[in-house]
Structure formats: structure tokens, C-alpha cells
Amino acid sequence: MGSIKLENVSKSFGTVEVIPPLNLDINEGEFVVFVGPSGCGKSTLLRLIAGLEDVTSGTISIDGQDATEIRPARRGLAMVFQSYALYPHMSVRKNIAFPLKMAKLDQAEIDRKVNKAAEVLNLASYIDRRPGQLSGGQRQRVAIGRAIVREPKAFLFDEPLSNLDAALRVNMRLEISELHQNLKTTMVYVTHDQVEAMTMADKIVVLRAGVIEQVGSPLELYRQPANKFVASFIGSPKMNFIDGEAASKYQAHTIGVRPEHLRFSRESGPWKGVVGVAEHLGSDTFLYVTLEGGEQFTVRTVGNAEFHHGDVVYLSAEPENIYRFDENGLAIK
Amino acid sequence: MATDHSRVAARFMISPAVLLLLGWMIIPLSMTIYFSFLNYNLLSPGMEEWIGFTNYEYFLTDPAFFAALGNTLLLVGGVLLITIVGGIGLALLLDQPMWGQGIVRILVIAPFFVMPTVSALVWKNMFMNPVNGLFAHAAKALGFAPFDFFAHAPLFSIIMIVAWQWLPFATLIMLTALQSLDQEQLEAAKMDGARKFNRFFHITLPHMSRAITVVILIQTIFLLSIFAEILVTTNGGPGYASTNITYLVYAQSLLQFDVGGGSAGGIVAVILANIVAFFLMRMIGKNLET
Ligand SMILES: Nc1ncnc2c1ncn2[C@@H]1O[C@H](COP(=O)(O)OP(=O)(O)O)[C@@H](O)[C@H]1O
Ligand SMILES: [Mg+2]
């Protein structure tokens, strides 16, 4: 229960093709994250799966059945919206009960399910309040509650954490992951935040302008990015790139080195640069270095490195951790 | 954060405006109350004398008063019903994406800009006239006898005319309410299995409750004092069939030159309006709170 298959699915708004034909398999029980910059079509893709938008061409099947023409409620999917989309005139209890009421369950059954969801999500203490009287985190829980009572085949999340503050975001991230561990239901999660993608996903789908750039587990994407876009999008801080002469030594058009794979010294090394800003976080130090060729490099090192603005530094890359790209930006194996 | 000093200054500065408004209201009101206790008829000037509650007794026991009270309630209730149901319906239609939306919206507001006397006359002579009216022609074309609206259904005809005037107002308020509804809520309801009817009933309608309240409150205030439409069409007749309280007060004081009786009727109308306002606020005022 809960596998989704997209075949040659495309979507145009008027004459603008937002999503060119794409294929994607989402396996049962997987936590799949769509990640990509803002406006790349993540929400549109999710809404196509939900049935809130009609596909321009292609087929969507859920559990092996063609669901392209089936209306949203019948697809057995539940969605958590970015704005939560709670019903403001209903209490939390009524909000959560709404899908059950629409499914015409009897009242005892509805009460049982709502109470269970309230217990799982810890929202019993405010179950009789209206959404307007709740904090962002509480609203988020109610929205998730409304999704889980339906016992859907899969959950769809559209940037559910983007309206929360940083601390709460980390908490909710853990809770959603835990929920997935407990329910073992397929989850499709949209975010523009690669940290959320890396920490939560079984499988990441990287999108750019509606095109799938790469699909893989977080570590696959980190270790073997298919192209420069994925390499720079996955990992924080971003990968450093250098081209020209330095790259041709490695038979590549461009080479990339992650900040954590750079070594530095005060005396010698292949790339000479000047420290612009040094951020000392205690556990880590980030150096923002401008190379002689003008490239901006970020260096990450564990512990404290005694560098300051204006210091000269020589950088070198760990040879086994150099990524090579051709002139089209594709990775050279 | 106002200091005590600035608060005192503020009160001092707005006091002329408040006093002016107070005077504007108090002086006519107290004069009306005063007249209502007099035997004051314009046909016998200089004969005014204090007669206590006699004017009220006459006004309240007059069978015309009960007819007028019933007509007033029917008029207000009927117009509210038509404009609210029709306003929601039209707003739902106008909210659909369509070609020429801007022009259609302007067309819909147009009746609101027509003076009540003019629109009532247009209805009377162009539509409802039993000989030359469009409705009469239509009835004849279909083989029916033309219907004399103002003779046989005077109150209903006036309700139609007034509802036509107020429908644009209701539609506009409903349309803005409809457009402020978060689309994601509707989509969430769609995902939750609510079909069109349930989405309207459980999501759209509750969202519009505040707009409906505003329409009811504002329209009730204006509808209690409908006058011009009655004057130019039926003159309150036949009999008292289309007389409302406002028209009755006019008939009493100006057609019978009885200033005292008319004033008593006016005070009764003010009290009734306040009772209606009180219950309205009690009934739906809580919709306006949060
Ligand atoms: N209803 C719509 N009509 C026209 N264009 C749309 C509509 N919805 C989204 N788009 C366009 O599709 C592109 C992708 O949007 P979206 O899926 O919301 O991006 P993301 O969620 O990745 O930020 C954007 O360029 C957006 O302008
Ligand atoms: Mg989006």
C-alpha cells in the first residue's frame, strides 16, 4: 500500500511548460523528498500527485492502478499544506474529524480515531480551541492530525516547516521522521531546504526547472552528484568550484571540492588566497577565502583555526575527494 | 501610548464635534417627543394643547398600525432573503473566471447608482404596467392574461423593486468575502473528501458569515425606512396593503395634517427600530467580534 508511479507526466500552465515529461517511482513506505530552488515546480509536482492539478500528459498510478483521472479524495492521499489550511471556524477536534465526517463514519468511530490522533500528536490539551488561538507549531500538529486520521496510503507535505522558527523546525523535523518510523506509510515531502532533505529522506529527488536532475539516497547525492547543480545544491556550506588551468590538471573542465575536504596551511599549497571572513563557531571554523584567480572558496575545519581577516592561506584538496565535471557540468566518472 | 495630559487635550479638542453631533440628534428628537404629546393639527393653527398619551393611544390602536407593522417586517425580511440568497448566488457566479469580468462586475453594480424614485418609476411603467409593461407583453405573447402587479400584489411588487436595488450591494460584499477565502482551505477540503456542496456548506458559507452579518445590519437600517418606492408606485394602497410604518407616519402627519399623531408615530418607529437593532446585535453581533 502506497507506491506511486509517474510515467511521462508533464504539466503546462497555458503555454508555459512548468514540468517537462518526467518519470519517477516512489516505493511503498519510502520517505521521498523533492528538493530544489524556489519556483522549480516542486509544489506543482506534488499537486499533480494529489490530484489538485490535472496532468497535461502522462499517467499517475497509485498502487499499480491508474489514478490520473481519479478525484483527489479518492486517491487515498493526505496532504499537509504550507499554510496548514486549517478550517478557522472549527475547533481542533472538528478540524481533525472533518475528513471522517465527509467519509460518513459513525460518531463513535470518529471520536475514537480523533482521540487516538490527539494522543499520538500530543494535542489533547487544546483540542477544543480554534486554530486562531494556536501557535504555529500547534497548528502544524493539527494539520498533521487531520492527515493521519484518514489512514492514507501516502502523506504529501508541501514545505510544512517553512513557517516555523528555527528551533521548532528542528523539533518538528524529528517528529515527522519519528512519525514515519511508526506509521511506515509512504511520505512525499517538498522542501527547498537541503538540510531537511538530507536529514529526513530515504530518497531525494533533486529538481531544477521541472526537470529531475538526480534521484538517490542522501549519501549517494553527496558522494556521487550527477552534475554541478546537484553538487552545489547538496551539502552545506556549498561546494567550491574552480576551472581553467587548475582543473585541466585533473583532465576536467571544472573541479569541485567540498569545504570539509580542503586542507590549509600558512606556508605552501597549490592555491593561494586571502581570508575575507573567519567564522569561529567553537566546534567548527568557516573561512571565506578569495583565491588569486578571484574564486570564492569556503573552508570548513573542525575545532579552532587561528585565522583572521587578511591572513594569507594556502589551500589544497584531499585528492580522493575531488569532483570532476566536463564543460556541460556533468560529472566525469 | 497617550499620557494623561494628552488624553485630556484630546477630549477637549474633539468635544466641539461631539457636541455638534449630539445637538444635531437631540434637538429634533426632543421636539418630536414634545409634539407627540400635543393635539397639534395644521388645519387648526394656534389650538395646540397638551393631551398626554392620547396620540400614542390612537396610533397604536389604529388597525392601520398593525397592517403597517406587518408590512414593514415582510418588506425587510423579504428583501433581506432575496438579496442575501441572490447576492451569494451572483457572487459565486461572478467569482468564476470568465471573459469580460470587469465589465460584468460594473454592470452588476449599476442598479445601485439609480435613484430609488427613478428605479421604482421605471419598474412601474416599463415592466409592471398591466397594459404597456414588458411583463404584460411577455404574458400576452405566451397566451396568459397580463397581471396587474400593483393592484393584486402590491407589497410583493415593492419587495421586488427594493430587492433589485439592494442586490448589487449584497453581491459586492459577498464577492469580496468570497475572494478573501484562502484557496488552500478549499483544496484541503477537496482532499478531505468534501464534494462541491459540502465545500460550500462547511467552508465557504462559514467564511462568509461575517459579510452576511454586515449585509443584514446595514440593509435592515435602510429597509426599515423605505419610502420613495411606495410613494411613487402604490401610495401605500390599495387600502393599507403596501403601507409600512414610515409611510404611515407620512400619511398621518402630512396627508391628514396631524403633526401630533405623526410625531407619536415617528417615536414609535424609532423605538421599533431600536428593538430590531437590539435583537439583531444580540443574534448576529457575535459574528463580528473575533
Ligand atoms: N496556477 C498556476 N498558473 C500559472 N503558473 C503557475 C501556477 N502554479 C505555479 N505556476 C508556475 O509554475 C512554476 C513552479 O511553481 P511551484 O510548483 O509553486 O514552485 P515551487 O513549489 O518549487 O517553488 C512557477 O514558475 C510558477 O510561477
Ligand atoms: Mg512551493
TrEMBL record, chain A:
Lipid biosynthesis recorded as keyword: no
GO cellular-component term (any): ATP-binding cassette (ABC) transporter complex, substrate-binding subunit-containing
Key words, A-Z: ATP-binding, Nucleotide-binding, Sugar transport, Transport
Domain ABC transporter residue range list: 4-234
One term of GO molecular function: ATP hydrolysis activity
CDD domains linked to this entry: ABC_MalK_N
PROSITE patterns, A to Z: ABC_TRANSPORTER_1 (PS00211), ABC_TRANSPORTER_2 (PS50893)
Coiled coil: none
Entry superkingdom: Bacteria
Name of this protein: Various polyols ABC transporter, ATP-binding component
Gene3D superfamilies from the UniProt entry: Nucleic acid-binding proteins (2.40.50.140), P-loop containing nucleotide triphosphate hydrolases (3.40.50.300)
Record InterPro entries: AAA+_ATPase, ABC_transporter-like_ATP-bd, ABC_transporter-like_CS, ABC_transpr_MalK-like, ABC_transpr_MalK/UgpC-like, Mo/tungstate-bd_C_term_dom, NA-bd_OB-fold, P-loop_NTPase
Record-linked SMART domains: AAA
Signal peptide positions on this chain: none
From TrEMBL, chain B:
Coiled-coil ranges from the UniProt annotation: none
Predominant cellular place of this UniProt entry's protein: membrane
InterPro entries for the chain: ABC_transporter_permease, MetI-like, MetI-like_sf
Biological process per Gene Ontology, one example term: transmembrane transport
Gene3D superfamilies hit by this protein: MetI-like
Keywords from the named record: Cell membrane, Membrane, Transmembrane, Transmembrane helix, Transport
UniProt xrefs under PROSITE patterns: ABC_TM1 (PS50928)
Pfam families, per database record: BPD_transp_1
Protein's recorded name: Various polyols ABC transporter, permease component 1
Organism from which the protein derives: uncultured Thiotrichaceae bacterium
